[in-house]
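Board work, copied verbatim: Queuine tRNA-ribosyltransferase
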Amino acid sequence: MYTLLKQHGRAKRGQFETVHGTIQTPVFMNVGTAAAIKGAVSTVDLHEIGTQVELSNTYHLHVRPGDEVVKKLGGLHKFMNWDRPILTDSGGFQVFSLAGLRKIKEEGVHFHSHVDGRKIFMGPEQSMQIQSNLGSTIAMAFDECIPNPSTREYVENSVARTTRWLIRCKAELERLNGLPDTVNPHQMLFGINQGGTYADIRIEHAKRISELDLAGYAVGGLAVGESHEEMYHILDETVPYLPLEKPTYLMGVGTPANILEAVDRGVDFFDCVYPSRNGRHGHVYTNYGKKNLLNAKFELDDRPIEPGCNCPACRNYSRAYIRHLLKAGEMLGMRLCVLHNLYFYNTMMQEIRDALDEDRWPEYKKWKLTAVSGERTEP
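↓ predict structure ↓
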């Protein structure tokens, strides 16, 4: 159940109660595609850095180790030793990113595994069955992630099919939740709004899926090639037509600035690989802009990544040491950068919630946008 605690303009401060704990929103979900955060970050680490929700990928876990294997081992929470909420995406984005390997039909999608080339079929029912076997807290509906740009005719047909698939997803998950051997009988379903960059299609789709009274709603198909301005415009147009009393999730977004702007437009949930991917390449987020620790200027820099930061990396190690680890190809360097970046994102979300609670959201947003842009001078 979602409770809207406060609003400032369209920005929402809420909480979402689940069988695996209460999520304070706005929230950034830490992405562990194959049931692990890339960069040697464990679920014990996730507790330490303030992670509320972990996100895993339906397609990747179906391919390896297999969702049936995970079910036999007690479900994803037990498998990866994580006692807080997990959201599993539907596999749709991965399926549709395999453009040369797939064929879309009304019943679903036929495609080939990127691992061993074997033929796989996934449709709404199969996606729900896989996610039910995983036992995640929140399951995402199976949809088509429409490439940008696409013709209006293609988008209209695709969105209509995505709506039909969503109805099938809802019916199948209700059936699965009622089975005696289901891992998580309280699994919730989020629907996904699509429509490319056509605002009117987005709005009509938002109205249609809102009628289904799902646990939450996502805006999908953004951050896939369109400009930030286009993304913000679509959010401005679409989010008001999604239920205020349900969480809104912007999929695959994004930079700190993207998140701040989307919170301002009424978004509750976020996920993105940026903090972990950038960390593995030595790029770290700070309140003085993003830094590349591989740069020679950090060779003798004995300060932490960000002075005052309370993450495991900053509490214990210098920029110079982490740079050395990265240059030497030591995994510890990547791990420390990923931990710092995830901590930075999780802390930013706490700051956002505090600012909304304390009626200082506009001031905080302005300050943070300046900070992450690198406009502030480091002391």
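The radius of gyration is 21 Å.
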